[in-house]
Amino acid sequence: MAKIFYFTGTGNCYSVANRLGEKLGAELVAITDYLSHPYIVEDAVIGIVTPVYSMDLPQVVAEFLEKVQLQETRYIFCVATMGALAGRTLYHVKEILHKRKLILSAGFTVPLPDNSIIFPSGEKRMQMLLAAEEETVNNIGELLKEHEENSVKMKDFFLWKIVAAVGMWSLKSVLNVKHKKINKDKCNGCGICAKICPAGCITMEKGHPVFGEGCLTCFGCAQWCPNEAINLGWLHPTGKTKYVHPGVDVQDISGRHMLDCKK
Ligand SMILES: Cc1cc2nc3c(=O)[nH]c(=O)nc-3n(C[C@H](O)[C@H](O)[C@H](O)COP(=O)(O)O)c2cc1C
Ligand code: SF4
Ligand code: SF4
């Protein structure tokens, strides 16, 4: 038995997790769902599919790795999706598991279009990355079936830690991405942002979204909004910076809310 735990804002990680799930016969579980209702995981094979945030793991994925209760697990792998550079992401997974006396057996990266607004992939690269996804993930799936071991290759660099910390600080404190602003003239009250928010921190009130605390900086609300009505601090996805995975629907990633989000 196998389970793949994923975290996603704009669908890249869901798409990769879904492809791997089909290939390995694994059940998909949203990391935010697990954190809302933790339980003992008894599967022999565990996968984690995560985006890269500022050269590192998203905080919520790190929290999951610290808390997930594993029993009988013999093989753990991680796949990171990113626009260009994964930095210390895979090493960080290995480090957290090592502290818990668990072993990350294998790690892989899958480059996919960048959803971060700041570094858009560009139309040509976007098409190229999406076209390569199936083959890349299939190849990873084949290696996973053979229980590939490659984690000795994962190293940390002091510089990555600094770049990761400064990058995340800039996103939160300089670009102020946790502060959302709604353009009520553009918002039609469709509720998509509230459905897809993995933090569950968006509620619809009087036909418009209201943002509570607990944002996981996935950029999903602004990217999925069909009317470009959401500003993430100083960032506003529009035109070339707008991106969601074309093979993923709102329904695929709806309702994976954390339950402890403060309103
Ligand atoms: C807050 C934030 C920070 C990001 N930082 C990086 C980064 O350091 N390196 C990179 O290559 N991509 C970065 N990205 C891009 C995402 O890792 C990439 O688009 C990922 O595939 C998104 O996955 P998702 O669609 O499942 O949310 C960042 C995205 C966000 C939202
Ligand atoms: S997704 Fe956009 S248009 Fe729909 S409710 Fe949210 S802000 Fe309004
Ligand atoms: S509020 Fe935060 S966690 Fe929720 S969808 Fe928007 S960026 Fe993601």
From TrEMBL:
InterPro entries in the record: 4Fe4S_Fe-S-bd (IPR017896), 4Fe4S_Fe_S_CS (IPR017900), EFR1-like (IPR047964), Fe-S_Ferredoxin (IPR050572), Flavodoxin_dom (IPR026816), Flavoprotein-like_sf (IPR029039)
Name of this protein: 4Fe-4S ferredoxin-type domain-containing protein
SUPFAM superfamilies assigned: 4Fe-4S ferredoxins, Flavoproteins
Coiled coil: none
Pfam families listed in its UniProt record: Fer4, Flavodoxin_5
Residue stretches making up the 4Fe-4S ferredoxin-type domain: 178-207
Gene Ontology molecular-function annotations: 4 iron, 4 sulfur cluster binding; metal ion binding
Species this protein is from: bioreactor metagenome
Keywords: 4Fe-4S, Iron, Iron-sulfur, Metal-binding
